[in-house]
């Protein structure tokens, strides 16, 4: 965006502090617009006619550097692009890379449907949510527009996920668009050769379009030409070469395009970028090798600026790391990742099992939890609400206190007399100095665990069960 | 502009008199798109769209009632001009001016001409841009050091199967990773020295280091057990045994007697690994202490800002490294050192070793034999993009694939030309 301080935004706002947006003041709202945690339309007064000019101006100034475009319709529609920074710590990245997995029009129907269902239903639980994949890319392998349109129709009947229609043949794209014109699919692709006809399709059917050229001069020419003809919903594919020096060049092109768009404000090419890790399959035929290399390419271009990508492997060992690396890169670094406070069971605890305390900082919690579960230690693990701060810092900062610990067990209705035979809780080694306080507040016996949860197994051997007093 | 009529607004279109539309079944609040291009309801009707059929009926009703529907439909603005030729253009983009400070070059290993016995050395660092960027080429490729332990340890099954024949001999283990798996370096982890494990004496541990040095001729990393009370003494003794070899001593950290380790590195000519936990300011502090307080020369410092596994804090590890590298390039001389990653930590992620997902809601996790190595690869690869130079790894396949991609991005891999112009129709 073109503005970088709340004060600059404030000038355009109604300045009446009506609080209808949920913020007490227009200045506070301005700060939310700058960090993109609220949208201009959240301000009811500015939507009135009298502010129309300011609204329009401000909207232009607040628009992200990389154009945000939407593919598909309804609740499964996905927006891509929308970024304002080159590094996630500078703000955060918006609109996680959209993952589209392919099907093709020469597949037997049962297989075709099964594959689409597999894509649609993929899920991986992670930190309180499910990681999923986003789109289905239908490829025209037959060369027959009618057959392609039939496959696209079948795909749209099978899934609500947005579709990408993939063919360099305008006739095939047209036939497919006829059957899914109301679904806002992305069409792939306009090239130096077919651009006139594909432009007609994108205009007539009002759909977003991918421009393909490994030559960045040509790619920019295409983008300028399409923009001149009135199209804004453009995606750039600079070509994903799967190997060697050409792959290095591909990597460099992604950097160049994004740097030009964000750092240099070159509006002409400030569009979402597409990667095609599927091209790994053009060189590797063995499923494991191709899936591995495809996952490697997907990861490289998830980290460096791919906004949408087309993938082939549905192997779990490809999809799991793919959705995780995307989550890694797009997680908002401004908010500490937390887990829900409470007392959780690890394995199948009995009355003789230990009760261990940690914080609700997701990284700490999951590390401790996996250290325990992987060592098959049955226990209760309490996540104390420390605002998502780790043990050491929370003890120093007062977010982890005896009262907070006591509170966690009380809120969870965890009665030590009822649940345990030992009436003992175990503090993290890094919280040792709370021992006396916790004993006083809870009336429990308090033991000090190791400073690193990786050492809990050794500690257990030596110190558990607690010796009778 | 597209005009949209909501069903609820139809009342006004019809003068507010029609209560129900006979013969038209309506569910929910249907939007009728009266857009200017393409979506001619008559044409869509012919194509059999349900909503289009509805629109067609409604428009017929309107027409019968005398509303100028056809004018509304025809009132679209003129089509944008079609161009007959591409607009010519040149793309260019600048380099980053702010990247003025090179990353310190650090040499690991010493040959006989430098007072050691290694056959070759490894140079890390020297970058003047983010890795693999076009701004300036990376002077040295990434390197991989493979883990060897001084006693059998718990390992994921997929890892262990590679080492069962050498698990009781650090020397044989070291030979195997260099000979069979292409390790650039070997890390000998002296974990048995931990008082909670075997409490092996520093003197005994130093013998293991000597064995490894004799078994292989690549540079080595000497790792302690991670016990902050014991490690300084262990590393000191090991450093003495490996005098002159320019080993990497792993590690100095703020929670142990780093000065003693720094002293050993200086005295016996080694490099110090400056290890902090995901905190850029702590990294600055420790580096500063090593340089100013302990007098370690710049060319003898490497950093380990901590590696968290994919899905277990890699976002922190990645951003921490990227910030450190950017700060270094932009002139922070307390942070412009090469970096090392304990990529093996990836095996702590349950996705890398668990037989199947503990959650029934998850899609099938598939065979773990394939999940583990890729978890290690992606963890390392992500950090390589943030600027990490040296990778400490365990699985042979992970090592090979990470080498392949990092060396490709570095520019060291040729390949046959691949035509990517026809992927949409490729049979795969």
SSE arrangement:
The complex is a heterodimer of chains A (469) and B (428).
Chain A: H1 6-10, H2 26-34, H3 52-62, E1 69-71, E2 78-80, E3 98-104, H4 109-121, E4 124-126, E5 129-131, E6 135-139, H5 145-158, E7 163-166, H6 170-180, E8 186-190, H7 195-205, E9 209-212, H8 216-228, E10 234-237, H9 244-262, E11 274-275, H10 287-303, E12 308-311, H11 316-330, E13 342-346, E14 355-359, H12 362-374, E15 379-384, H13 391-397, H14 402-411, H15 416-419, E16 424-427, H16 435-442, E17 445-448, H17 456-463
Parallel strand pairs in A: 3-6, 3-12, 6-7, 7-8, 8-9, 9-10, 11-12, 14-15, 16-17
Antiparallel strand pairs in A: 1-2, 4-5, 13-15
Helix pairs in contact in A: 4-5, 5-6, 6-7, 10-11, 14-16
Chain B: E1 3-6, H1 10-13, E2 31-34, H2 41-47, H3 50-64, H4 69-74, E3 106-108, E4 122-124, E5 143-149, H5 157-160, H6 170-179, E6 185-189, H7 202-215, E7 220-223, H8 231-241, E8 248-252, H9 258-268, E9 271-275, H10 280-293, E10 301-304, H11 314-329, E11 340-341, H12 350-353, H13 368-386, E12 390-393, H14 396-410
Parallel strand pairs in B: 5-6, 5-12, 6-7, 7-8, 8-9, 9-10, 11-12
Antiparallel strand pairs in B: 1-2, 3-4
Helix pairs in contact in B: 2-3, 6-7, 7-8, 8-9, 11-13, 13-14
Characterise the protein shown here.
The complex is a heterodimer of chains A (469) and B (428). With 469 residues, chain A is α/β, with parallel strands linked by helices. Chain A has helices at 6-10, 26-34, 52-62, 109-121, 145-158, 170-180, 195-205, 216-228, 244-262, 287-303, 316-330, 362-374, 391-397, 402-411, 416-419, 435-442, 456-463, and strands at 69-71, 78-80, 98-104, 124-126, 129-131, 135-139, 163-166, 186-190, 209-212, 234-237, 274-275, 308-311, 342-346, 355-359, 379-384, 424-427, 445-448. The N and C termini of chain A lie far apart (65 Å). Chain B is α/β, with parallel strands linked by helices. Chain B has two domains: 3-74, no CATH class; 106-410, Dihydropteroate synthase-like (TIM Barrel, Alpha-Beta Barrel). Chain B contains 14 helices and twelve strands. Chains A and B meet through strand 4, helix 7, helix 8, helix 9 and helix 10 of A and helix 11, helix 12, helix 13 and helix 14 of B.
């Amino acid at each position: 965006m073109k503005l970088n301080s709340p004060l600059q935004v404030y000038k355009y706002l109604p300045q009446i502090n009506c609080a209808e947006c949920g913020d007490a003041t227009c200045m506070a709202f301005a700060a939310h617009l700058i960090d993109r945690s609220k949208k201009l339309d959240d301000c009811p007064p500015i939507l009135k006619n009298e502010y129309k000019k300011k609204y329009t101006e401000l909207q232009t100034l607040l628009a992200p550097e990389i154009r945000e475009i939407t593919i598909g319709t309804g609740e499964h529609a996905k927006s891509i692009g929308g970024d304002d920074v080159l590094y996630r710590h500078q703000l955060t990245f918006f609109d996680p890379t959209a993952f589209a997995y392919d099907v093709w029009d020469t597949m037997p129907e049962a297989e075709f449907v099964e594959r689409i269902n597999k894509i649609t239903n993929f899920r991986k639980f992670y930190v309180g949510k499910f990681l999923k994949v986003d789109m289905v890319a239908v490829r025209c392998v037959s060369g027959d527009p009618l057959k392609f349109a039939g496959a696209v129709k079948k795909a749209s009947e099978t899934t609500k996920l947005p579709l990408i229609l993939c063919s360099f043949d305008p006739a095939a794209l047209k036939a497919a668009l006829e059957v899914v014109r109301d679904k806002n699919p992305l069409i792939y692709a306009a090239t130096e050769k077919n651009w006139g006809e594909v432009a007609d399709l994108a205009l007539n059917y009002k759909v977003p379009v991918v421009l393909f050229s490994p030559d960045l001069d040509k790619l920019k020419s295409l983008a300028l030409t399409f923009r001149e003809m009135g199209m804004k919903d453009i995606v750039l594919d600079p070509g994903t070469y799967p190997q060697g020096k050409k792959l290095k060049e591909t990597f460099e092109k992604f950097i160049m395009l994004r740097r030009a768009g964000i750092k240099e404000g070159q509006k002409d090419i400030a569009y979402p970028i597409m990667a095609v890790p599927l091209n790994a399959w053009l060189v590797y035929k063995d499923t494991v090798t191709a899936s591995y290399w495809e996952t490697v390419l997907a990861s490289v271009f998830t980290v460096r600026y791919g906004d949408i990508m087309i993938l082939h492997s549905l192997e779990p060992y490809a999809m799991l790391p793919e959705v995780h690396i995307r989550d890694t890169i797009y997680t908002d670094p401004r908010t500490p990742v937390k887990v829900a406070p409470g007392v959780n069971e690890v394995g199948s605890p009995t009355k003789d099992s230990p009760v261990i305390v940690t914080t609700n900082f997701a990284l700490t919690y999951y590390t401790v939890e996996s250290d325990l579960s992987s060592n098959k230690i049955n226990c209760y693990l309490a996540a104390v609400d420390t605002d998502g701060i780790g043990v050491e810092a929370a003890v120093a900062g007062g977010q982890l206190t005896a009262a907070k610990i006591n509170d966690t067990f009380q809120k969870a209705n965890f009665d030590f007399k009822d649940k345990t035979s030992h009436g003992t809780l175990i503090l993290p080694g890094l919280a040792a100095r709370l021992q006396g306080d916790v004993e006083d507040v809870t009336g429990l016996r308090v033991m000090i665990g190791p400073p690193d949860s990786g050492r809990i197994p050794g500690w257990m051997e030596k110190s558990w069960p607690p010796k009778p007093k | 502009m597209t005009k949209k009529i909501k069903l609820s607004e139809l009342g006004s279109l019809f003068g507010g008199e029609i209560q129900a539309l006979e013969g038209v079944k309506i569910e929910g609040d249907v939007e009728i798109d009266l857009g200017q291009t393409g979506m001619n309801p008559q044409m869509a009707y012919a194509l059999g769209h349900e909503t289009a059929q509805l629109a067609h009926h409604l428009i017929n009703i309107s027409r019968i009632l005398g509303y100028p529907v056809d004018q509304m439909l025809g009132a679209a603005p003129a089509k944008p001009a079609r161009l007959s030729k591409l607009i010519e253009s040149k793309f260019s983009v600048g380099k980053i001016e702010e990247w003025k400070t090179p990353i310190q070059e650090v040499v690991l290993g010493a040959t006989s001409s430098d007072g050691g016995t290694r056959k070759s050395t490894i140079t890390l660092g020297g970058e003047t841009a983010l890795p693999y960027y076009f701004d300036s080429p990376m002077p040295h490729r990434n390197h991989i050091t493979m883990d060897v332990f001084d006693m059998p340890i718990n390992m994921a099954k997929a890892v262990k199967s590679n080492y069962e024949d050498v698990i009781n001999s650090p020397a044989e283990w070291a030979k195997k990773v260099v000979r069979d798996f292409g390790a650039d370096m070997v890390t000998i982890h002296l974990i048995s020295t931990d008082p909670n494990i075997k409490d092996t004496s520093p003197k005994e541990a130093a013998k293991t280091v000597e064995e490894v040095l004799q078994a292989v001729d690549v540079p080595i990393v000497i790792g302690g057990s991670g016990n902050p009370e014991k490690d300084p003494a262990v590393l000191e003794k090991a450093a003495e045994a490996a005098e002159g070899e320019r080993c990497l001593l792993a590690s100095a950290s703020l929670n142990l007697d780093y000065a003693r380790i720094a002293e050993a590195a200086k005295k016996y000519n080694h490099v110090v690994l400056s290890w902090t936990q995901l905190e850029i300011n702590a990294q600055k502090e420790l580096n500063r202490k090593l340089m100013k307080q302990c007098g370690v020369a710049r060319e003898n410092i490497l950093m380990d800002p901590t590696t968290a596994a994919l899905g277990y804090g890699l976002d922190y590890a990645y951003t921490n490294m990227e910030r450190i590298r950017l700060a270094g390039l932009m002139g922070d001389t307390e942070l412009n050192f090469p970096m090392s990653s304990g990529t093996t930590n990836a095996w702590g992620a349950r996705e890398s070793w668990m037989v199947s997902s503990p959650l029934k809601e998850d899609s099938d996790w598939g065979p773990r034999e394939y999940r583990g190595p890729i978890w290690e690869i992606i963890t390392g690869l992500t950090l390589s993009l943030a600027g990490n130079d040296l990778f400490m790894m365990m699985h042979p396949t992970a090592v090979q694939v990470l080498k392949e991609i990092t060396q490709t991005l570095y520019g060291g891999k040729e390949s046959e030309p691949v035509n990517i112009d026809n992927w949409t129709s490729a049979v795969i």
